[in-house]
Design brief:
Layout lengths: L26 E6 L5 H15 L4 E4 H4 L10 H13 L4 E5 L3
Parallel strand pairs: 1-2, 1-3
Length: 99
């Protein structure tokens, strides 16, 4: 849905977190928005990480919390999903949308 003409979206400064030097022993959340084939792509990414990175812990968010496999469509829903991800304390999040 389009935002109403009188609704203003404000974006403040963004600071990126430092990337971990290694993913060994780290937790990686794979986040899919429900679009076709995104889960397949992330599953393959997870397989490759498991093969190449010792001790990496993968969380397929769409399996542990199926309600998150959606396009959020609102700032509030996006924040809810972000909060769920943050609650898992990941070191890295990899997200995908596909068609």
């Amino acid at each position: 849905p389009q935002k109403p003409a009188d609704e203003t979206i404000k974006v403040g400064p963004v600071t990126l977190n430092a990337h971990p030097e290694t993913l060994e022993g780290k937790t990686v959340v794979l986040r899919w928005n429900g679009k076709p084939n995104g889960d397949k792509f992330l599953t393959r990414v997870g397989e490759l990480l498991s093969e190449q990175v010792q001790g990496v812990k993968l969380i397929k968010l769409w399996e542990t919390d199926p309600d998150t496999a959606e396009i959020s469509n609102s700032v509030e829903r996006s924040q809810e999903i972000a909060d769920k991800i943050a609650g898992l304390s990941p070191d890295l999040v990899i997200a995908s949308q596909c068609d």
